[in-house]
Input
Amino acid sequence: MKIGPIDLGYRPVTLAPMEDVTDASFRILCREAGAAMVTTEFVSSDGLVRDVTKTIAKMHTLEEEAPVAVQIYGSFPDAMVDAARMAARAAELAGGHGADIVDINFGCPVSKIAGRGAGSGMMREPDKMVAITRAIVEAVPHKPVTVKTRLGWDDSSKIIVELAEKLQDCGIAALTIHGRTRCQMYKGEADWSLIGAVKANPRMRIPIIGNGDINNAAKALEAFERWGVDGIMVGRASFGHPWIFTEIRHLLDTGKELPPMSVRDRVTLAKRHLRLSLDLKGPVTGVYEMRRHLSCYFKGLRDFKETRMKLVTSRDPAEILSTLDYVAARWGSESPAPEGVYGL
Output
């Protein structure tokens, strides 16, 4: 599968953009685990055009992440176009590798974004969505532009099949579809039938990437074989579980499932994750932003509550590393939790 000139290989598995989750340390681990492409946290177009330091910093990427997309969101057309131009210049503005792809967020359902008409809030104004997309494609002709969106605003307005054609006509290089409406948020099951309908549309020429409920390797394989998508995107199931990409890739390539990762190996990976976070963000922010991952790395272990609380409340990196050593010593010989527990 190609996005513009970028070849992601056969049946690629990519990392979804997630606010406060997909920072550089996590993106690096997911790439190492087999993710074909990663995406930054959401980057506010308003923050970029106002030159907000924290917003610009979100565009900082590293060579070892590539290929990497910078995802922008917003509801004001002029700001979105300006933000796209800035995202295309991410290496110059934020340092590091920069953006291989500019991705447009028309999918985030959270109220603080969708409620202001951005993210999946744009599903209520499809003509405006198409106009913004066309303007961005024209503004950054030297970068592939992609879109991530949902099925529609609610059950009565699932417009994705028609909308996908219109977005393609704007010149985007690929389309990612989350199989829920905005009103569903993350509740209920993702409807892959409509993702499949977009892919089956003979008028569609660009790659279609499916997203929603891919929380194990078997579901990833089913998404490819049943719905015919070109790629899949993994989101929430990667929390504290970056090796899900290794599990999926192994099944896709060999037809066999890997056994669950051992507790000792999870400890080793958690330590590496923590050290990356500390190196990239310093001891205060690095520890704070690891907590959401550390709370998931060891889900399913018996009698783990007190130790989990230590991992997610300590501010001292040395104490966290010591606690991780204790986890390996105390639970290292135990059988992993049942399938499906980790990362959900």
